Each structure stands twice: as structure tokens, then as C-alpha cells.
Fold this sequence. Notes:
The complex is a heterodimer. Chain A is mostly helical. Chain A has helices at residues 5-26, 30-50, 54-78, 92-112, 126-134, 138-159, 162-170. In chain A, helix 1 (5-26) runs antiparallel to helix 2 (30-50) and helix 2 runs antiparallel to helix 3. Chain A is extended. The relative contact order of chain A is 0.06. Helices cover 76% and strands 0% of the residues of chain B. Chain B contains 3 helices and no strands. Chain B starts with a helix and ends in a 13-residue tail after the last helix. The interface between A and B is large, with 88 and 77 residues.
Amino acid sequence: MDGSGPVVAFWLLAAVTLVAAGGVLVSRNLLHAVLFLILAFIGVAGHFVLLSAEFLAMAQVIIYVGAISVLLLFAILLTPRAGRDNGETKAFPVGALLAVALAAVFLFVINDTNWKTVSESPALAPEALGEALLTSWVLPFEIASVLLTAALVGSIMLARTAEEEAEDALA
Amino acid sequence: MVPLENYLVLSAIIFSLGVYGVLARRNAVLVLMGVELMLNAVSLNFIAFSAYLDPDRIIGAVFAVFIITVAAAEVGLALAIVIRLYRNRSTSNVDEAASLKW
Lengths: 171, 102
């Protein structure tokens, strides 16, 4: 990638992502927070496109923007009082201090390290990714499927109402 | 081309914002959004490393795929717990679910 296009795109996407991530943290309305979070997810997906990982950008849009945000909206709408009382905990100065300290450590390490970047790296091929997932990474892949099944069963069990449980006990 | 450090700084800032969200917000759903921001920052970091440091580009992408999978499982389970907490205690604030505190 040559020219100033990718640089301009990087700064625009970075601004969008950071403003949206900040908006998640300052908005008092939970629905606004979810909308900001969706914007942040889309910004990160744009960064994936810039880094020529288009497949992951699509996965990001489908799973984060499509599925996870809708789940978050479900949880917000199923817990009605949650829309009103969502300020900070009493420990929020400690949290802010820790976050700033963590950012300082990260920035120091990033600045201090001599990154040995390779000059020309190819675009990420979805075929190669799929082949790697089903050959050298097949065990983690299967463990991830078991994890998803367990999470599915677990969330159904947790979210059932008492009446549904009573019905199952009778049957 | 944008230098690698820009991506690292960006994802470090997103990660720290997520940490602040997890530590400081009362609402359990907002805490969860902080976790999602942190996971997103980490997968951005993995993709940036795989684009700038790895000639094959596969390993970082594999990690990002697993992060997305685990994030989906985690958010489903956590939201079930939030709904259960709301049903039992009529709250979804993390600092009011303190009955295990001594």
C-alpha cells in the first residue's frame, strides 16, 4: 500500500474508534453506550481491512456488530431498571488511576522496544487460515466448539424462569 | 504505510479505556462492554503483529478467530448471569451483588 490514503484512513478510523470507545464510558444511557460500542466495533473492523485481513473484518462485523451487540441490547431491555442507575462505583478514582497507569506502562514498552518489522507482508488469505485451523490448530478449534456448546447449554439453564424449571420437574 | 507503533498505541488506549469501564462502572452490562473493548483491542494487536512481524500472517489471525469465538461464548453466558441476577435481586449493579462479601 503506497501513498497517503492508508495513513489518512488510519487516522480517521482511529479517531472514530477512540471517540466511540470513550462514548461507551461516558454515556449514562445504556442504549447510547451500546450504539457507541457498535461504532467502536466497526472502527476496529475498518482497521482489520487496513491491515488486509478482510476475512476477520467480516467475522468482526457479523459476530460483534451482529450478534454480541444484539445480545447486549437483549440484556439491557430485559433488565428495565438498569437504564436509570448506571453511574460509577465508589472505587472509580482507583479504576481511573489503574487504567492510566496501565496505559503509561503500555506506551513506555511500545516506545522502548525496537520492533523488527518485515517490509512486505502479503494479504491474509482465508484459504490459508482455514487450512491452518483444520490442521495444526485443530485441537484448539475443537475445544472452542465444545466451549461454545457448553456456553450455550449453560446460558439456557441460567436464564430459565422458575416456572419453566417447575414444569420440567413435573415432566 | 502506517508504522506498527501507531496500531500498538491505538490498541493500548482502547484496552485502557476497557479497563476503566470494567473497574469503574456499576452496571454489569457496562462492565461487560468494557470487557468487549479489551478483547477487541487485543485482537487488533494480534492482527497488527501478524501484518508487521510475521511473514506467514497465519498465527495472529488464528488467535483473533479464537478471541472472537471466546468473546461470543463469554458474552452469552455473562448476559444470562445478568438476567438471573436481575430476576433474583432486582438489580444489575455489580456493587449491589455483594452477599459473598465478608
